[in-house]
Amino acid sequence: MPTPTRPVPAPRLPEAEGERGPAWAAEARSRVESCGAGGVFYGISIFCLVALVRASLTDPGRLPENPKIPHAERELWELCNKCNLMRPKRSHHCSRCGHCVRRMDHHCPWINNCVGEDNHWLFLQLCFYTELLTCYALMFSFCHYYYFLPLKKRNL
């Protein structure tokens, strides 16, 4: 039969160091607590950068030079005036890229690529993460200037 053990009391800090412990412990505790906010910011930043790379490297839906058009859909295709290729009715020729793109939205200078049928969702992800990152940064800027700085002046 094992012998029962008594709990060991935690050592008391000296009175000179205060109730919350030494100053270095309070500083370390504040660094750990603030790491959560920085971690969220860096996490959103990584998502934003990954979405930027994916949106810029993904093919927007360029049409091939010799598309195989079924006979039943021939009336839904037309000839492009600029590149002389057959394209579907909802496609558009990009003057910057020089290609016809299926369901082209626009040519985005931020990703240096067209936003078309195949990368539209990735572009929307990039817009979402950028907006989320901007709102997060604005919130912390607001808190810094209107909450933390007045507290710092009051403590001085």
Strand portion, in percent? 5-15%
Q: What is the count of β-strands?
A: 6
Query: What string, H for helix and E for strand, traces the elements in order?
Result: HEEEEEEH
Mean pLDDT: 79
Structural class, from secondary structure content? mainly alpha
Biggest sheet record: 2 strands, antiparallel
The dominant shape is elongated
Distance between the termini: 61 Å
Blueprint of the fold:
Elements (H helix, E strand, L loop, with lengths): L22 H35 L19 E3 L6 E3 L3 E2 L6 E2 L4 E3 L4 E3 L4 H36 L1
Antiparallel strand pairs: 1-2, 3-4, 5-6
Helix pairs in contact: 1-2
Gist of the model:
With 156 residues, this protein is mainly alpha-helical. Helices cover 46% and strands 10% of the residues.
Describe this structure in words.
- Residues 1-22 are annotated as: Disordered.
- Keywords: Acyltransferase, Membrane, Transferase, Transmembrane, Transmembrane helix.
- Residues 78-149 form the Palmitoyltransferase DHHC domain.
- It catalyses: L-cysteinyl-[protein] + hexadecanoyl-CoA = S-hexadecanoyl-L-cysteinyl-[protein] + CoA.
- With 156 residues, the chain is mainly alpha-helical.
- The protein is 46% helix and 10% strand.
- The strands form three sheets. The protein has a two-stranded antiparallel ribbon.
- A hairpin with a 6-residue loop joins strand 3 (92-93) and strand 4 (100-101).
- Helix 1 (23-57) packs antiparallel against helix 2 (120-155).
- The termini are far apart.
- Mean pLDDT is 79; it is low at 15-19.
